[in-house]
Design goal:
By secondary structure, this protein is mainly α. It contains six helices and three strands; from the N terminus they run ααβααββαα.
Length: 164
């Protein structure tokens, strides 16, 4: 397969990587089709592929591509954009997709914290269930602070290693 940039590729090697990496993402909890689409985008030099290119490379239907991209966009791992001068969409994976995905998870953790606080109040802090919820809340508060500090260290590390 030729990359949009014209770089020759060994389609078998690309396919092996995409399927292997997708299997790792599936094992971690991602759905199979979004994992495969994400792997294909990540393996493309430009980081951008059209629906047709994804369908051809992965041997999947346009509907499967659409569903996978919808999920990946919701979790901030890819973005949609129009091809210049066309009505066709293309899909882009960004260099900071992991940062964006993790940052998005922080909002989820905040919602969990709010629900846990409400649970502690509702169940009573002195009950076994209330203490269990309070410990879970403390864990998520700890994780949230650690992730925030870690992301700042990552920004510094990334800039030193890869520049802007």
């Amino acid at each position: 397969m030729a990359e949009p940039s014209g770089t020759a590729r060994d389609p078998e090697a690309v396919s092996r990587f995409v399927e292997h990496f997708a299997a790792q993402l599936v094992e971690a909890g991602m759905q199979r089709m979004p994992a495969r689409v994400f792997g294909a985008l990540l393996a493309s030099d430009a980081g951008v592929l059209t629906s047709a290119q994804l369908g051809e490379q992965l041997q999947i239907s346009p509907a499967a591509v659409s569903g996978a991209v919808r999920y990946l966009a919701q979790v901030h791992m890819v973005s949609r954009e129009r091809e210049p001068g066309s009505r066709r969409e293309r899909y882009r994976v960004h260099g900071d997709q992991w940062y964006e995905a993790l940052t998005n998870r922080e909002a989820v953790i905040k919602r969990w914290e709010d629900a846990l606080r409400e649970g502690v109040t509702s169940l009573g802090a002195d009950t076994p269930a209330g203490r269990r919820l309070a410990e879970t809340l403390a864990f998520f508060e700890f994780v949230e602070k650690e992730v925030e500090a870690m992301m700042e260290r990552w920004r510094v590390h990334r800039e030193k290693r890869f520049g802007q």
